[in-house]
Structures are given as structure tokens and as C-alpha cells.
Write a structure and sequence with these properties.
alpha+beta, 13% strand, 85 residues, single chain, 3 helices, two-stranded antiparallel ribbon
Length: 85
């Protein structure tokens, strides 16, 4: 239900300008992205999933961190490993 204007306002409120992007579209357009990155869309009474996904050089998702488990050390380690593959 987001619109470009609502997405821009949210990014501004969160002070994420230049650091975060919204992907907008209808459910059919977003299905592939949700499936590829293991995203659970927001539903009535339930929040959507929030995670950080690391891709390899071919664009394949290799690592996913739930936001509440994300650490700089964990990301650094996995980026090093992905860089070697």
C-alpha cells in the first residue's frame, strides 16, 4: 500500500536518505523479489520480515541476517568469505 510519496517520507523520517531504497509495485510484481530474498510481506496484524541479504558476485543470495542478529563482525566475516568465492 506504499506510494512513492509515502516511501520518500518514511526514508526522510528515518534519516536514511541515500542509504535505503524502497521497491514499490503490486503483489504480482513483487512476488519474485519476495521469493528470492526470503521476504515475508506485511499482512494485517503481522509485520513483514526485516533482514539483510548478502549476494555473491553472480547476484545469488548467499547469506541472510535477521536484523536483530546483525553485527558488524558477522557481516565483515561473511563479506570476506564471499569475496574469496
Amino acid at each position: 500500500n506504499d506510494t512513492p510519496a509515502r516511501a520518500r517520507a518514511f526514508i526522510a523520517r528515518q534519516q536514511m536518505n541515500g542509504r535505503m531504497r524502497f521497491l514499490l509495485g503490486d503483489a504480482a510484481q513483487l512476488q519474485r523479489v519476495w521469493r528470492t530474498f526470503g521476504i515475508q510481506p506485511q499482512q494485517d496484524g503481522r509485520e513483514h520480515s526485516a533482514s539483510v541479504v548478502l549476494l555473491d558476485s553472480a547476484g545469488v543470495a548467499r547469506v541472510s541476517f535477521p536484523v536483530d542478529q546483525l553485527t558488524p563482525e558477522g557481516v565483515e566475516h561473511d563479506l570476506r568469505v564471499l569475496g574469496r568465492s
